[in-house]
Design a protein that fits this description.
single chain
């Protein structure tokens, strides 16, 4: 199973859009022990990467208020990151019943279907997200569509989605990485490197996947020193034994 990387933004009082106009609802978010307060505690834990304790807070909130959509949404994110795809999908679908315009849920459902091999359903959900006027970051869905098409070997279709996404955000690293993969497939290695470098420069963390892709292409170009430099940099950015083995195998192959 591929590693699922989910990017999410924690927004204070995310699901209390009109709380300030409804003082009693706003007070619920400030009252210790209330479902809303527990939910916000869970968001803080989720933001720090503490999935286990975040899950416990959200479950406690939902025990008190079963239809608290923000907690349902957050549990969907937690379970997605834990690889519990069925539970994640169930929670996201409940959010859509309560808040049909929470369009990023379709993007998450697309990820779930992609990870579980239901590629047509994945594409359907990504398309809903990408083309909805209610989705604030359609570039996410376009990047997922591009990677889905690359996975299927449909590079022309992937390029189309990259181009549509770059119109929305021409500095979105996931789209630039996808474009790099398309160019690598076409053996336009210099342009592939250019786009991988742009992906790294626009990524806050210098995503390790982009560095691995750069290292591989530099290796194909017989630029040994650059390949080794990039892969060694990537090695320092992961604690995963599986990823470290992958990088070390690449380094050994290049550094003969």
């Amino acid at each position: 199973m591929k590693k699922t990387i989910v990017t999410f933004i924690i927004i204070s009082l995310f699901f209390c859009i009109n709380c300030r106009k409804k003082s009693s609802a706003y007070q619920d978010y400030l009252r210790p022990g209330s479902p809303e307060f527990l939910m916000n505690e869970g968001y803080a834990l989720l933001s720090s990467g503490d999935l286990r304790n975040a899950e416990a807070k959200f479950l406690k909130a939902l025990k008190k208020k079963p239809n608290l959509s923000g907690a349902l949404y957050a549990l969907g994110v937690v379970y997605l990151n834990q690889g519990k795809f069925s539970k994640s999908a169930d929670h996201f679908k409940r959010v859509l019943v309560l808040r049909p315009n929470t369009i990023d849920v379709y993007n998450y459902l697309g990820v779930i279907y992609s990870e579980t091999g239901r590629l047509d359903k994945a594409k359907e959900n990504f398309l809903i997200a990408a083309n909805s006027p209610h989705y604030k970051t359609p570039e996410n869905a376009f990047a997922n569509l591009a990677m889905l098409e690359i996975r299927r070997g449909r590079y022309e279709s992937a390029r189309r989605y990259v181009q549509k996404g770059l119109i929305k955000n021409n500095k979105f690293s996931l789209l630039l990485n996808a474009l790099g993969l398309i160019l690598e497939h076409e053996d336009d290695l210099s342009e592939a490197i250019f786009n991988f470098e742009k992906a790294v420069s626009f990524s806050e963390s210098g995503d390790i996947t982009f560095l691995i892709n750069m290292g591989r292409v530099y290796g194909r170009m017989n630029q040994k020193e650059k390949a080794l430099d990039v892969l060694e940099q990537a090695l320092s950015k992961t604690n995963s034994a599986i990823v470290r083995k992958q990088i070390n195998d690449m380094i050994k192959k290049i550094d003969k």
